Amino acid sequence: MEIDKTKNIFSREEMFELNKERLESRGVTIDDIAQIAYKQQSKFTKDIDYEIVLESTRKILSYADAFHIIQLGIEIDELAEKEMLSYPIQAVIKTDLGLFGLDELFGLELAGNYGIIGKTNFGDIDVNKPAKVNELNEEGKKPNKCHTFLDDIVGAIAACASTRVAQIYKEMETHHKGPKQF
Ligand code: MG
User: Fold this and answer.
1) What pLDDT, on the 0 to 100 scale, is given for residue 177?
2) Alpha helices in 50-88 (DSSP H)
3) What predicted TM-score, i.e. pTM, was given to this entire model?
4) Domains and their CATH numbers in the chain
5) Which residues are within 5 Å of ligand 1 (an ion), measured at CB?
6) How far is the CA of 159 from the centre of ligand 1 (A)?
């Protein structure tokens, strides 16, 4: 998507495209994120339609709050990979220091768009590191790689999607009808 690089506000469609491209450039697809959300929510909700999980993941990627966190978090990882930050924060971020915690703060803030359940779901993914989150975490340990913020961002988007799916199914159950969009 061609975007005018002098502007600083974007349509939801543009934010979605920019987020999708940026995540893909870091090896993360929408399907990777939706798989985590699907696996998590399947523990609580029966017979989930995977299309609703994919649609939820796409929707979250179009929100401004998510956009700024995704773009800034990935930017910091990339700068750390290129050794472009200053000491001491370069060393702290590049080594993914466990006591740093601001990467989890980005994740929690993003997940908080879906309330307490969103944050709880993020905590579960952060601790158990399913699928792509674990892959990113391991790959980030390589000398020329930094996924300090990316693993939390991916976990948080999945937590939001998982929570949105729960909301849709709850609403369906209440009204005994097809999925309602939020
Ligand atoms: Mg992290």
Assistant:
1) 64
2) 50-60, 64-81
3) 0.93
4) 12-175 (1.10.3760.10)
5) 103, 148, 151-152
6) 15
